Amino acid sequence: MRRVLACLAALALFLLTAAGMKNAGVLAQSCRSVSLRYRQPLALEIVEAAQGKQPGLTFWCEQNATLATPWRQAEATVLYYWGDASLVLGRECHTGNPPAPLDTGGCAVSTALAWQLFGSEEAVGLTLCQEKAEYTVRAVFESSEPVALLPRQDAAFTAVELPAGEETAQDPAAWTDACLVKSGLPEPDWRLYTLLPAALARLLTLLPLLFGAAVLAAALARRAARLTFPARDLVVFVLLGAAALVLPAFFSAWPSWLTPSRWSDFSWWSQTAARLEEMGKAFLTAPAIGRDLAVKTGLLKQCGLAFLQCALCEFLRCRFRAADKQLPRTVAPVRAVCYNGTDEGTAD
């Protein structure tokens, strides 16, 4: 029975690890930019000037509107955008591809809205209307809420997406300041560094593996301490080599701006702590629009999966440790004694 429980726990750990990797991949797809949020809509002159000074910016906002087809109409959450639709959508499409940046007549709808307007998820190529403007459906994405992604250049934009580049990973705050100066945009009310939740999700995926590696390394170190000179040094060399192979994978997921250039620079620690506090407050207090709720729930899901994985790792560790401490049972040999009538007579 104990072996069955151990096998089931190992299978559950494998499935949870696969689910965690998949969830981390979804978060990485949703978090590919730095999002600037404003309480008040940006003036159209500021938006046009920023697009001219720094091409590649994506402006968007969330509103409620009525969408119609020749046969049906439905109330939906509409994401108006100007720029890259994939940065606003932040997920893979069920069918089709998001509209191109210069495609002013294409749109994307959720599966729930496709059922309400067209009676099927196969809506690519069909048309819908919104305020006398006609759009052709280019893509359908998975969502239980009626959501539409429509291009529009004169909307009341309250969010700006800065596409992440190679310089973003070095120092996202300084890179964002440089983009604000270059584009002429005003200082936002909230800065959402979405790359940080994606990196945290990848680290949480590696956490159970690091837990198991630490337990294995500790067990090998305890056994190596009882060995003689050549074998002990060989085990230590193997452990150091394994650590050297694992560290590059760990630091590839670790944000580089969280690694100090000089460990003795105490001002770096206080500045980084203040920056992380500011990022956390913005992540929690900014109004949830667009993909924000999906990112937050995905991060909570990743934390829950990591907790369950660590609990299963601890269960397996205790199970194997108890099996090692269990002494083998030995049965004393049984001596057969025969009694017959002759022996009884002799004894008498």
UniProtKB/TrEMBL annotation:
Keywords: Membrane, Signal, Transmembrane, Transmembrane helix. Residues 1-24 form the signal peptide. The chain crosses the membrane at residues 199-222, 234-254. It comes from the Bacteria. This is Uncharacterized protein.
